[in-house]
Design goal:
Distance between the termini: 33 Å
Number of helices: 2
Largest sheet: 2 strands, antiparallel
Strand content: 15-25%
Shape: globular
Helix content: 25-40%
Number of strands: 4
């Protein structure tokens, strides 16, 4: 069964619950960028098909944690693609 068929079956199983939720892949990409720009936040990240392991760094983080404020390139925040807005969660 191909990925499209699996996706359609998964949607049928859970309904519309996840339609307005950010995909987990967004968080994984943010953690990968944090590992590169703030190793004191994310010390290590390991990706394999079907699983992600994250080792947290030693930095004490503010609550709530917003990874976008810590993802930097040469000291500047990394610009996200214009026109793509995050979907607000209800």
């Amino acid at each position: 069964m191909g990925p499209l068929a699996r996706g359609l079956l998964a949607k049928k199983r859970v309904g519309d619950y996840f339609d307005r939720k950010d995909p987990l892949s967004n968080l994984i990409l943010e953690l990968m960028l944090l590992a590169a720009s703030a190793p004191d936040v994310v010390e290590n990240i390991w990706l394999d098909r079907g699983q992600v392991l994250v080792r947290r760094g030693n930095r004490i983080l503010d609550s709530p944690f917003n990874p976008e404020t810590l993802i930097l390139n040469r000291g500047d925040r990394i610009p996200f693609i214009p026109g793509i807005e995050k979907i607000a969660t209800d």
